[in-house]
């Protein structure tokens, strides 16, 4: 029998109901086992894996051909479905109760010696995996990640199309504008000496589409930023970009929630609890020390400056005299998890976070209080647990009994807990304890698995002062609208003005953000003035948008989501590289294609470019 007479069937389409039927399958040999008169292979295609049996007594020809097979050979096999003998089932495979009794076999292609074994649990160096990415992508996990990505994008488009959005492409070759990161520049051959920039986002064009009257735009678009990389960053990344006219902030947030609820239901069979909780930026910084708080676990920050206003500890006195803040976190059961050496090592961790030091105390049972309670006529059951505790170790000797009682009550501290303190400017104290909170939670497994906590963070500051640039800069971008009630502050005190901006946070990661845009030219001019952007510079950088805003721009706003980061979280991966087909390394290199690479002198001359060697000593 020739293998090509039957139409090909995928492994994942075959089940027990197909018993005694014949099929043709094509794919890669995943495992090969020779048991004498029987040869077993696991055949893999993109839909799944199925066991093939070559029996010398059934087909001597296919059995002899099977002897030539090695791992990752590409084959075509035809055979009959049968139930596996009792006791030989494989519960790890969806097809684990059946197998194919081979009758015909054709080797379609051979495979060289593999640079690494294609196994699910592999400690293969990532650089090697990326160099041979086509082999790495044969692994089930990687294949499932990319199929999941495809389904995510499909459902996103399905939802937005049903809600009246238009999928409109914007240019890749555009004008260089300041958006926070370095642009990737592309030289123009036809306009010698000039450059295009690859877009960091379609921000200006999507606003122009609103002026054009499309009202609801979206795009799953590639964006480019020439910045230092890490596990959740790539020089080229994919963004879900959305913009709407005649809407308010609450409308965008509501539609976003409906979209994610739709995707989670269809893709993960998870019902999201709507509406998503909303937190003010100031509260997020005060309670979690982060504008993207992970709310899957507790350990909140507490301001304890008032408790230590008369402290005898010089560090605390000095901090408060400089109008700083004293903050604390309570690490539940920390005494059982941290040795004194571990606590000392946290000092190095905190310094890496930007802190000057780390004060601490342990919470222990106060035997004297317990003894007193037992001899008292009072009902000890009604005495708060913290009243039977005391502080010891660290800075405990500098804390009075009165301060201890108030502190233990405020932090709800119990026997076995550890309290960490940070005394600095409020900004640094929040940041350091916020990062320490995450560090402890990750190291000591305080974060529950399989939990998705969404959170909106709103009311970001409109501006901040840059010590490096010695001027006021925009927190998001210069087209973000201020809160209506803060318009008067633009003249009086712009640094305390809030913006109509919003970030969507998932499990402590910012997955998207947006804002209501400025649509009136006079307000846009005012913002440029505060940002020290001269009129001629604004015209040079944003002239085409400013012109568009002067021709009847509607009120509008939008939001954008980092699809790579979202998928990394949904697939429980540690790096976005594992949800991207062909990613770059942290040095922005592609080991597979060897990009970036040098080009011929003739190409450079045609573009009017001369390479200047960098001084290695600079």
Radius of gyration using CA atoms only: 31 Å
- The order of strands across the largest sheet is 6-9-10-22-21-20-17-11
Low-confidence stretches: none
CATH topology of the largest domain: BirA Bifunctional Protein, domain 2
Judged by helices, strands and strand pairing, the structural class is: alpha+beta
N-to-C CA distance: 71 Å
Helix content: 25-40%
What is the strand content?
A: 15-25%
Number of helices: 18
Q: In short, what is this structure?
A:
By secondary structure, the chain is an alpha+beta fold. Helices cover 30% and strands 23% of the residues.
Features:
618 residues; alpha+beta; OB fold (Dihydrolipoamide Acetyltransferase, E2P); BirA Bifunctional Protein, domain 2; Gyrase A, domain 2; 3 domains; 8-stranded mixed sheet; 5-stranded mixed barrel; 18 helices; 23% strand; globular
Structure description:
With 618 residues, the chain is of the alpha+beta class. It folds into three domains: 11-109, Beta Barrel (OB fold (Dihydrolipoamide Acetyltransferase, E2P)), CATH 2.40.50; 144-278 and 455-579, BirA Bifunctional Protein, domain 2 (2-Layer Sandwich); 297-447, Gyrase A, domain 2 (2-Layer Sandwich). Helices cover 30% and strands 23% of the residues. It contains 18 helices and 22 strands. The protein has helices spanning 60-66, 126-131, 133-136, 140-162, 203-211, 249-268, 281-288, 314-321, 334-337, 340-352, 367-375, 401-410, 426-443, 489-492, 521-530, 535-549, 563-570, 601-607, and strands spanning 22-34, 38-45, 48-55, 74-83, 98-109, 166-167, 185-187, 195-197, 216-224, 236-245, 278-280, 302-303, 325-331, 359-365, 389-392, 418-424, 454-458, 463-466, 471-474, 501-506, 509-516, 556-562. The strands form five sheets. The protein has an eight-stranded mixed β-sheet, sandwiched between helices. A five-stranded mixed beta barrel has the order 1-2-3-5-4. Helix 5 (203-211) crosses helix 16, helix 7 (281-288) packs across helix 13 and helix 15 runs antiparallel to helix 16. The longest helix is centred in the first third of the chain and has 23 residues, at 140-162. It is globular. The model has no long low-confidence stretch (mean pLDDT 92).
């Amino acid at each position: 029998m020739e293998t090509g007479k039957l139409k090909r069937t995928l492994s994942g389409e075959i089940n027990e109901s197909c018993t005694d039927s014949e099929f043709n399958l094509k794919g890669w040999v995943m495992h090969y086992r020779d048991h004498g008169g029987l040869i077993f292979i696991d055949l893999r295609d993109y839909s799944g894996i199925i066991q093939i049996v070559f029996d010398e007594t059934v087909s001597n020809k296919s059995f002899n051909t099977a002897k030539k097979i090695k791992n990752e050979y590409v084959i075509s096999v035809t055979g009959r479905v049968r139930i596996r003998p009792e006791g030989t089932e494989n519960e790890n495979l969806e097809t684990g109760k059946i197998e194919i009794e081979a009758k015909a076999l054709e080797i379609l292609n051979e495979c060289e010696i593999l640079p690494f074994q294609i196994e699910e649990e592999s400690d293969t160096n990532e650089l090697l995996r990326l160099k041979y990415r086509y082999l790495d992508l044969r692994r089930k996990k990687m294949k499932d990640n990319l199929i999941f990505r495809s389904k995510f994008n499909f459902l996103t488009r399905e939802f937005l199309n049903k809600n009246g959005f238009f999928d409109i492409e914007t240019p890749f070759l555009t004008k260089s504008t300041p958006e926070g990161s370095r642009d990737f520049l592309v030289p123009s051959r036809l306009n010698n000496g000039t450059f295009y920039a690859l877009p960091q986002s379609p921000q200006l064009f999507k606003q122009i589409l609103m002026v054009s009257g499309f009202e609801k735009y979206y795009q799953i678009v590639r964006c480019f930023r020439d910045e230092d990389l890490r596990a959740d960053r790539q020089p080229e990344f994919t963004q879900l970009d959305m913009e709407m006219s005649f809407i308010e902030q609450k409308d965008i947030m509501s539609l976003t929630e409906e979209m994610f609820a739709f995707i989670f239901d269809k893709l993960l069979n998870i019902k999201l609890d709507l509406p998503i909780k909303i937190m003010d930026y100031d509260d997020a910084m005060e309670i979690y020390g982060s504008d993207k708080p992970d709310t899957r676990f507790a350990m909140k920050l507490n301001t304890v400056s008032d408790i230590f206003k008369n402290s005898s500890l010089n560090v605390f006195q000095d901090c408060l005299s400089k109008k700083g803040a004293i903050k604390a976190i309570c690490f539940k059961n920390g005494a059982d998890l941290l040795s004194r050496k571990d606590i000392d090592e946290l000092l190095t961790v905190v310094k890496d976070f930007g802190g000057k030091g780390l004060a601490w105390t342990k919470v222990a049972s106060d035997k004297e209080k317990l003894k007193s309670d037992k001899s008292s006529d009072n009902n000890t059951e009604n005495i708060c647990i913290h009243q039977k505790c005391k502080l010891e170790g660290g800075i405990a000797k500098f804390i009075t009994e009165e301060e201890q009682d108030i502190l233990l009550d405020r932090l709800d501290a119990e026997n076995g807990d550890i309290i960490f303190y940070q005394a600095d400017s409020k900004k640094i104290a929040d940041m350091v304890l916020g990062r320490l909170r995450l560090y402890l939670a990750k190291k000591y497994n305080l974060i529950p698995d399989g939990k998705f906590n969404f959170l909106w963070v709103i009311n970001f500051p409109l501006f901040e002062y840059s010590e490096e640039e010695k001027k006021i800069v925009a927190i998001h971008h210069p087209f973000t609208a201020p809160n209506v009630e803060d318009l008067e502050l633009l003249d009086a005190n712009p640094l305390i003005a809030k913006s109509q901006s919003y970030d969507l946070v998932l499990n402590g990661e910012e997955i998207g953000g947006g804002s209501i845009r400025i649509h009136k030219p006079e307000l846009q001019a005012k913002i440029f003035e505060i940002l020290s952007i001269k009129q001629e510079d604004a015209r040079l950088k944003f002239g085409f948008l400013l012109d568009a805003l002067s021709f009847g721009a509607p009120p509008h706003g939008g939001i954008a989501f980092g699809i790579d980061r979202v998928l990394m979280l949904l697939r429980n991966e540690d790096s976005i590289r594992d949800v991207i087909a062909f990613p770059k390394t942290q040095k922005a290199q592609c080991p597979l294609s060897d990009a970036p690479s040098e080009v011929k002198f003739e190409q450079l001359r045609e573009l009017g470019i001369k390479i200047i060697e960098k001084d290695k000593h600079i």
